[in-house]
Amino acid sequence: MPSIVAANRLLEALPATERGRLLDHCEPVVLRFAEILAEAGEPIREVWFPIRCAIVQVARIDGHANLEVGLVGDEGALGASLVLDVAESPQQALVQEPGEALRIEAGRFRRELARSPALTRVLRHYIHAQMGQLAQTAGCTRFHVVEARLARWLLMTQDRAHSSQFHLTHEFLANVLGVRRVGITRAATTLQSHRLIRYTRGDITVTDRAGLEAAACGCYAADKICYQRSMAMPAAARTQPQP
């Protein structure tokens, strides 16, 4: 297994001593595509800090349809709701982009929360960012066309994969975006015809990042602003001199 360093933004926001203590209890792992990390309503057994991967959170609608409600990469953590004393996973979570992550057992994580005010503060601000992004996603799903939503999702995936190339099948995208597979095919064909992406058997290459941003809805930029504003206070608190 490759060596993994703390390249997760939540971990990097912690003071060095508290970050080091938490990392002592983290295990480096490599996540596989479509691996299920959590099920809705089941106890949170582990907390995951993505390094170079993406984890999609999926809500079940009417017991049969799926809809993405969040994407977690190196800007966040899966299982962060433990900071609110919520012990059950609110959604199913599965690996969208395989790669490296850090994993810590839930009981050990709770003990670190009790010892680390900085960790508690950072996670609460991250959850605030997630709430804003969830509201943005709800509006995006209701009002924006599939092509713009797909462009947004591809940008979000690229940000978390740290690569212009990644693998996403039509079926997987249809499930997480809550549309028919034919809708994904048409949207991907349009983006490819505009030379924004190359798409072959699930292998996607972003060929024109600026063009893809222009094709995406404003929700992509709004998500980034929401995260930056929510996380600004912990960053500012970290740099203030201590009495």
Automatic annotation (TrEMBL):
<dbReference type="InterPro" id="IPR000595">
    <property type="entry name" value="cNMP-bd_dom"/>
</dbReference>
<dbReference type="InterPro" id="IPR036390">
    <property type="entry name" value="WH_DNA-bd_sf"/>
</dbReference>
<keyword id="KW-0238">DNA-binding</keyword>
<protein>
    <submittedName>
        <fullName>Crp/Fnr family transcriptional regulator</fullName>
    </submittedName>
</protein>
<keyword id="KW-0805">Transcription regulation</keyword>
<dbReference type="InterPro" id="IPR018490">
    <property type="entry name" value="cNMP-bd_dom_sf"/>
</dbReference>
<dbReference type="InterPro" id="IPR036388">
    <property type="entry name" value="WH-like_DNA-bd_sf"/>
</dbReference>
<dbReference type="Pfam" id="PF13545">
    <property type="entry name" value="HTH_Crp_2"/>
</dbReference>
<keyword id="KW-0804">Transcription</keyword>
<dbReference type="InterPro" id="IPR012318">
    <property type="entry name" value="HTH_CRP"/>
</dbReference>
<dbReference type="InterPro" id="IPR014710">
    <property type="entry name" value="RmlC-like_jellyroll"/>
</dbReference>
<feature type="domain" description="HTH crp-type">
    <location>
        <begin position="148"/>
        <end position="214"/>
    </location>
</feature>
<dbReference type="InterPro" id="IPR050397">
    <property type="entry name" value="Env_Response_Regulators"/>
</dbReference>
